[in-house]
Amino acid sequence: MAMNVFAGRFYEFHRQRVISRPGQPISTKDGIEVGPPISREEALRQIKAGGDVYTPRKQDAYQLARDAHGRVPVEEIHAPRIPSPTGRVDVYFRHFHPGGIHHAAGGAGVYFGARGEGLDY
Fold first, then answer.
1. pLDDT for 21
2. What is the CA angle 102-69-3, rounded to 5?
């Protein structure tokens, strides 16, 4: 079932969602990153703790990322290293790194918009 997202709201974001039941071997699935809705306060807490958040509108994502560290965030969009099994490269969401701190350095991501939006093909 498709999930509806609404402008002005924030959602959990899991770059890899664990889909296995408790006690079973870990199994993950891509493509189902947007999770349940959360408050702006919870979104800010998750970002400050290095977690990821999704919101549909770019201006909401920018403001949340800016509020998290008080500095201008860095915007990114990635293409996959190799296309998906169906040949698609529009599989990732645009995002901001609050304070310019990337995931590899323990930073968070505020994801926004549609999958593949802003990607130059």
1. 67
2. 70
